[in-house]
Amino acid sequence: xxxxxxxxxxxxxxxxxxxxxxxxxxxxxxxxxxxxxxxxxxxxxxxxxxxxxxxxxxxxxxxxxxxxxxxxxxxxxxxxxxxxxxxxxxxxxxxxxxxxxxxxxxxxxxxxxxxxxxxxxxxxxxxxxxxxxxxxxxxxxxxxxxxxxxxxxxxxxxxxxxxxxxxxxxxxxxxxxxxxxxxxxxxxxxxxxxxxxxxxxxxxxxxxxxxxxxxxxxxxxxxxxxxxxxxxxxxxxxxxxxxxxxxxxxxxxxxxxxxxxxxxxxxxxxxxxxxxxxxxxxxxxx
Length: 286
Ligand code: C2E
Ligand code: MG
Ligand code: MG
Ligand code: MG
What we know:
The protein is an alpha/beta fold.
């Protein structure tokens, strides 16, 4: 096919590119192998309440540690997993790890929520609804502590199957969160219609908040708008104390970012939870 021919042409001119092309072509079989052999794992990034500073939950972020390539980040394989139908299996793996990790944490009396990213390509048929329902039942997890993050895409237009699936998910009692808010197809209409309890403002609006007056205006008005629709607001990509202060002043509900904590393996999350509230700062672990 076209891609394979491209690969051959590269072979003549650029051996380095060939290596990349071969890698991409074999990515899927390697991904299957990675799922089977435990090269995939889940990192957790703490999410803090702006007012109390308490860690109220974490976001599960998939990681792939390849024996030769090292850490491969999700942006490099989620797309391929979506296109090839591996995303359901990958999501099942992440969901299982995430819910059992949160269950563990909550067994000592906490009310810790866990967020899992849901690809829009999963919003067809009833597989995802069955998967979510089955997982929380089996692990006896309070549904309201599971947050499913969905990105705004054109597939979520009104009257589509995706919209029905989101409604079914929210009827199970799990929370929905609109991820990367502000970068996609978000319209005011979308915000009103999607049964999400939370929006996450994309980090492109957050990272320069302390320097950019226009970002401040947009973020501030987004917070006000979300609050007037009874949605909670999370800021992602909070990288320094100045940004955090701005967000607190604006009335943002929760923050996530390198300033407070990087994504980390679950064993490190336990340690973080023990020390957080006492000005915890994590090193770059992942
Ligand atoms: P996302 O859901 O928007 O996740 C936030 C991303 O921002 C993560 O990248 C996180 O590591 C990064 N991040 C957090 N704080 C900061 C910060 O202060 N500064 C900067 N520069 N970055 C920060 P990551 O882990 O590479 O994930 C990228 C994307 O891949 C995610 O974006 C999500 O869309 C997708 N993804 C990750 N795990 C999964 C998964 O299990 N399933 C699906 N469908 N998608 C996933
Ligand atoms: Mg997310
Ligand atoms: Mg995001
Ligand atoms: Mg993102």
